[in-house]
Write a structure and sequence with these properties.
Layout lengths: L1 E2 L38 E13 L4 E12 L8 E7 L2 E8 L2 E2 L1 E5 L6 E7 L1 H6 L6 E11 L1 E2 H5 L13 E3 L2 E4 L15 E9 L3 E3 L3 E8 L2 E7 L9 E4 L2 E7 L2 E7 L4 H22 L6 E7 L4 E4 L2 E5 H4 L8 H7 L7 E3 L7 H8 L1 H8 L1 H18 L16 H22 L1 H15 L2 E3 L1 H12 L4 H9 L6 E11 L3 E10 L6 E9 L2 E9 L3 E8 L3 E6 L18 H6 L4 E4 L3 H18 L2 E4 L5 H7 L2 E4 L7 H9 L3 E3 L3 E4 L2 E4 L3 E8 L7 E8 L3 H7 L8 E5 L5 E3 L8 E3 L7
Helix pairs in contact: 3-5, 6-7, 6-9, 7-8, 8-9, 9-10, 10-11, 14-17
Length: 727
């Protein structure tokens, strides 16, 4: 199951860059030494599940009949290990019709029970011949209320890890192990869902039937290809269906909305055609857009599950929908063997979100790359996590690695081997691994086969090795040679570890530019570039195509710097009306990002303001801390009783919520942020700040889109030649 990226908060963290540890050389793991993730003498080939859910009591009863096969290399074994969520209990286990003994271990940190089934006696007594066996498990469970799940929502997104039941419906995610299953299992499924008659169930695969029996509805779904888990969703759906090129397209919405349905079906057809051409045939017989009662954004094999608010955001059909449909290829039919890293989010982002920006033009694509580099810089500069051990995006730091670094990797790979070879490599990777689990090794092998070159060096440094190169330039020289040619000398330094890099370099002259690529592989290396005209400047990586750790000065101030700083502090007004006005915002942001809430009365307030990123809630009249820092804002924002002026534009104080972020002059790795306003929508718009966290300033007025902007950074890898050097 994959999570959406397009609408989640882009919070960022600036951390100390003085130290990048010396690392031992990362070794890219050969394919043959990577475990396939399934280490069992039996393999579950299929599940046939029948489950009845009592919505009023939030309970279920179920039967799962599994078809097992002996492992070809081990033969029969007396034990089979399965896992089941803590909230469910086993009622009986029968193997080929014979009762089988089993042991249950206490739930682990993932709240999963380990069930060891002893098949030895049942194997002796059973008389079923052949390698395939039948295991029938009856079980029942109880589930939390949907409102309890809502209480765990952070940054506007529900990260669901267990089943839930409520008046709105039912959601049992596959990663919750709501049915007994092996780890890293790929299996076929046939499922029968019995729910109250006003609900409609949906799941992966083909919708076989839907019937009413008394007060119950019975829906049957089945898959024809192995998948890595079964999700169960039920609610009061209005269902629309059409057939496009043999594929059943559905919308499962809470109400009949022809315009919204048309938008999603039109865009679904577009994306299916786009990816079929680029990657290969769509792997399933259906695709459904399903509305959820929680603010989720998930992609499963053959459907996407979008929260009601998310579903209706105007940009979602043009962005996140395509991302989730791309997951039909990456992650939902070529599955993730995360024994050597989750590659799926990176490849999906590269072939969806980044692709859409490239279609819009070079400037949009460049801005996308810059945002990925800023996100990594602010969230994960010191992280020991490599792409080879990134598994999920449950933290902002891991997300900055799995999505940001991973997306940039595929861009560099395309630049290294060429567009044609890259396109062929993608198709080959998909063809070779369709309905199998794959690792970064399989990606490498596909591109090596396509190009006929050894790419181990590339994947060693970008996948197996954590971190990012950090570059600086110095000792820039210029010499005039015979024939009016000019030779530019430039020394590039890397902070360890040292990478092999193809550096894009642009030399600007009075009459144009010269672009070239220079290769470096040393800690300090001098390169020379010749041009035919007098140069005015030279710059490394002006289009930000290289994954690297940005310098502090390159990163503009933004709220994301504060949101990412786990040592950051939210400074509240001391008392009275201002305190009650801003307290809900402080509590929300503290819950989402983990910052400490303090007030002016705290003795360490001056230390906070100089050593950490801080967010000051309230105007100068509401929060006296503003008086300590306002001198740093004077060139950025002007405020009087009637209006606020930012970036040359004025806004009325009444009905405006204003947020501004600047560099902390006492600690340029940190930011100072303020948020204040006189509006009835203070809390509502305070929540919205999370969605504009990559901006330097935001002005909310009413319920419409805010005015927002980003203050410029400084290019540290650019050198402007003085006039005397050009003569």
């Amino acid at each position: 199951m994959t999570d959406i990226s397009s609408y989640t908060v882009s919070s960022t963290l600036i951390t100390i860059l003085l130290l990048i540890p010396v690392l031992t050389l990362a070794v890219f793991i050969p394919k043959e030494s990577v475990a396939n993730g399934v280490d069992s003498s039996y393999r579950v080939l299929s599940h046939e599940i029948s489950i009845t859910v009592d919505v009023e009591n939030r309970t279920s009863s179920a039967l799962d009949v599994m078809t097992l096969r002996d492992a070809a290399d081990k033969g029969p074994d007396p034990a089979l290990i399965l896992f089941l969520r803590d909230g469910s209990k086993i009622d009986s286990v029968r193997y080929n019709g014979i009762e089988a003994a089993y042991d249950i271990e206490a739930p682990n940190k993932m709240r999963l029970q380990k069930i060891t089934i002893n098949l030895e006696v049942a194997t002796r007594l059973g008389n079923k011949a052949g390698p395939e066996k039948e295991l029938a498990i009856e079980f029942h469970g109880s589930y939390e209320d949907i409102e309890d799940a809502r209480a765990r929502i952070q940054r506007g997104i529900a990260y669901v890890d267990d089943g839930m039941v409520g008046p709105e419906g039912i959601y049992f995610p596959s990663n919750a192990y709501w049915y007994p299953r092996q780890e890293n299992e790929l299996a076929l499924f046939r499922a029968e869902f019995k729910v109250p008659g006003e609900l409609t169930s949906m799941s992966e695969g083909r919708w076989v039937s839907s019937d009413k029996e008394g007060s119950e509805r019975i829906d049957q779904w089945e898959t024809t290809k192995p998948i890595d888990g079964l999700n169960f969703v039920a609610s009061r759906f209005h269902v629309t269906k059409e057939v496009y090129k043999g594929i059943n397209l559905y919308t499962f919405f809470f109400k009949d909305d022809p315009a919204l349905t048309k938008t999603y079906l039109d865009k679904t057809r577009y994306y299916l055609d786009l990816y079929t051409e680029k990657l290969g045939p769509y792997p399933f017989s259906k695709f459904a857009v399903v509305e959820n009662f929680l603010p989720t954004g998930y992609g499963m094999p053959s459907f996407t599950l979008l929260g009601s608010h998310v579903l209706r955001l105007p940009f979602i059909p043009d962005t996140s929908l395509g991302h989730e449909i791309a997951h039909s290829w990456w992650g939902n039919s070529v599955f993730i063997d995360d024994s050597f890293g989750n590659w799926s989010e990176a490849l999906t982002t590269y072939t969806s979100d980044y692709l859409y920006e490239r279609i819009k033009g070079n400037d949009k694509a460049r801005n996308f790359r810059i945002s990925k580099l800023r996100g990594y810089k602010n969230f994960a500069p010191n992280s020991p996590i490599s792409l080879g051990n990134f598994t999920d995006a449950t933290t902002t730091a891991s997300r900055a690695i799995g999505y940001n670094k991973g997306t940039m990797l595929f861009g560099m790979l395309e630049d290294t081997i060429g567009k044609e070879a890259f396109a062929k490599g993608l198709k080959l990777f998909y063809t070779n691994n369709r309905f199998k689990s794959a690792t970064w090794n399989d990606i490498r092998q596909a591109f090596e086969e396509t190009t006929g070159t050894d790419l181990a060096w590339f994947f060693n440094q970008w996948v197996a090795q954590p971190g990012a190169p950090r570059l600086s330039i110095f000792d820039v020289t210029i010499d005039a040679n015979k024939g009016n040619r000019y030779s530019i000398g430039l020394t590039v330094e890397q902070i360890r570890p040292v990478y092999r890099l193809n550096l894009p370099v642009v030399v600007t002259t009075d009459n144009g530019t010269k672009r070239t690529i220079v290769e470096i592989d040393k800690k300090r290396q001098t390169v020379h570039i010749d041009v035919d005209e007098k140069p005015t400047s030279i710059e490394i990586d002006p289009d930000y195509t290289l994954f690297r750790l940005l310098d502090d000065d390159e990163v503009p101030p933004s709220f994301s710097v504060f949101f990412g700083d786990k040592n950051g502090v939210i400074i509240m007004p001391d008392s009275g009306g201002p305190k009650s006005k801003y307290a809900p915002i402080a509590e929300l942001l503290s819950k989402d990002y983990g910052q400490k809430i303090v007030s002016y009365a705290d003795a360490e307030i001056e230390e906070y303001a100089s050593q950490r990123s801080i967010l000051i809630l309230g105007s100068m009249d509401e929060n006296p801390v503003n008086k300590l820092v306002w001198q740093y804002f004077e060139d950025t924002i002007q405020v009087n009783q009637e209006k606020v002026t930012i970036a040359g534009k004025s806004y009325p104080r009444t009905d405006s919520l204003v947020g501004v972020a600047i560099k902390n002059p006492l600690n340029p790795e940190k930011n100072i942020c303020i948020l204040f306003g006189d509006t009835d929508n203070t809390l509502k718009n305070g929540k919205r700040l999370r969605y504009f966290s990559n901006k330097s300033y935001v002005v909310f007025q009413g319920n419409g889109s805010p005015d927002k902007g980003l203050f410029p950074g400084i290019k540290t890898l650019k050198y402007d030649f003085p006039a005397r050097d050009q003569n």
